[in-house]
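task queued by scheduler; priority normal; single chain, no ligands, no partner chains; default sampling; output format set to structure tokens
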Amino acid sequence: MKPLFMLALMAALAPVVASSQAPETYIIDPYPAGKPGGSNVNMSLVKTLGFFTSKTIPSVVSGTGRGLYLYTSSSGELSGRWVRSTIDPVGEFYESSAAFLKSGYTSPGAVASR
């Protein structure tokens, strides 16, 4: 079986009374877009978690060897279905990405190396 790289969202929910709860893993896209040139493997090179579209459910920006994508929860739950939207369909996004909040804005934006 070929190795399969999956884009996973790690969410550690730390309740007030029990700080020793184990982190949970949520698969948001088992087959992320972006096969790097000369490869048969889908790879997500950079990931940024932020509240880009909602104040209660985080969304994920994923940079790959073939574009930049935004993942949002369509069900309002971390364990529900996630929808991929294309931010930029071309280019290689690598090294690092970050969420930032510009003065006067209510939701953060994202910046990534290209």
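post-processing summary
- Residues 7-11+22-113 form one domain.
- The radius of gyration is 15 Å.
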